[in-house]
Amino acid sequence: MKSLKKIKNPRSLSPTETILESISDGVFTVGLDWRITTFNRAAEEITGVPKEEAINSMCSDVLRSSMCGSDCALRQTLDTGKPIIGKSCYIIKADGSRVPISVSTAVLRDDNGKLTGGVETFRDLSEVDALRQELKGKSRIGDMTSRSPVMQRVLEALPAIAASPSTVLILGETGTGKELVARMIHNLSPRRKGPMIAVNCGALPDALLESELFGYKAGAFTGAVKDKPGRFALASHGTIFLDEIGELSTVLQVKLLRVLQERTYEPLGATRSEVADARVVVATNKDLSEEMRKGLFREDLYYRVNVLRVELPPLRKRREDIPLLVTQFIERFNRVQEKSIQGITGEALSLLMAYEWPGNIRELENVIERSFIMCQDGLIGIGVLPYELTAHVSSIPPSSDIKSAHDLLDAKAIQFALERNGFNRVAAAKDLGVHKTTLFRRIKKLGINLPKRDGRHSNPNT
Question: What is the DSSP string of 25-44?
Answer without folding.
Answer: SEEEEEETT-BEEEE-HHHH
